[in-house]
């Protein structure tokens, strides 16, 4: 990716957190923005801010809603032009102790964090293939490369990494690039936002302070937005926000090779 001015980006979870950081980085470069988010108030605030630097359209969207996705895509392309940059970024941090798991909790966690990505890909990919250009960035997590005890979260994020790696192999011949963003801690309100969406999979109260401290130890959303742009310019398969995962990834890779 070299030219940014006049390009159109569709960003899910684009009104808050990492999505807003990406939107700011792109907006500064003249990219026209279609922001989708479930939070109408946050969307209005993001639009007010970003419209000072570029064209912005907003869409209240639950990424689990395929019909809503299709409608937003159509409206965005009619208003702004063909979408060349897709950021499947919306996500939550669901959590449940293993003895408290249920089908409903699995369904919610996977519907938002995995099927939401699939919905974005399937909505926009045929359009990109037809035009033979595009770039897809899917937000996973460092926990999609090295598992942690959060079973609901790690399962979905590992799947997003695998989806992205396979998609990259499949679409290169169509002139489309794919990267997967694997952030470590980033200073966002994702824990609180998860609780607002669905109390049943929110972190237990006693875990919140430690997780909040961990997240605040990471870079700002604006710094991450710039990292994403730099990763796209370098066409990196994986984009990281820090090297916290390095020793854990090295240990996992060594264990996998030893198992052979």
Automatic annotation (TrEMBL):
Molecular function per GO: oxidoreductase activity
Database matches in InterPro entries: NAD(P)-bd_dom_sf, Sc_DH/Rdtase_CS, SDR_fam
Enzyme Commission number: 1.-.-.-
Keywords: NADP, Oxidoreductase
Pfam families reported in the protein's UniProt record: adh_short
Entry coiled-coil feature ranges: none
Family classification: Belongs to the short-chain dehydrogenases/reductases (SDR) family.
This protein's name: SDR family oxidoreductase
């Amino acid at each position: 990716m070299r030219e940014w001015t006049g390009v159109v980006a569709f960003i899910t979870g684009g009104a808050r957190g990492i999505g807003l950081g990406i939107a700011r980085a792109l907006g500064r470069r003249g990219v026209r923005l279609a922001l989708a988010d479930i939070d109408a108030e946050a969307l209005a605030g993001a639009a007010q801010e970003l419209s000072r630097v570029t064209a912005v359209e907003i869409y209240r969207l639950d990424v689990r809603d395929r019909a809503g996705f299709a409608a937003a895509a159509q409206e965005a392309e009619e208003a702004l032009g063909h979408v060349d940059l897709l950021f499947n970024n919306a996500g939550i941090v669901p959590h449940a102790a293993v003895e408290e798991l249920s089908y409903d909790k699995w369904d919610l966690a996977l519907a938002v964090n995995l099927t939401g990505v699939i919905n974005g890909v399937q909505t926009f990919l045929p359009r990109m293939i037809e035009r033979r250009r595009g770039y897809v960035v899917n937000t996973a997590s460092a926990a999609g490369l090295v598992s942690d005890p959060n079973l609901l979260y790690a399962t979905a994020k590992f799947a997003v990494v695998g989806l992205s790696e396979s998609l990259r192999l499949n679409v290169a011949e169509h002139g489309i690039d794919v990267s997967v963003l694997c952030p470590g801690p980033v200073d966002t309100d994702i824990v609180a936002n998860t609780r607002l969406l669905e109390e049943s999979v929110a972190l237990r109260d006693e875990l919140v302070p430690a997780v909040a401290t961990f997240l605040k130890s990471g870079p700002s959303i604006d710094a991450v937005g710039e990292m994403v742009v730099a990763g796209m310019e370098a066409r990196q398969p994986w984009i990281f926000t820090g090297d916290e995962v390095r020793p854990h990834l090295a240990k996992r890779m060594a264990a996998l090779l030893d198992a052979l």
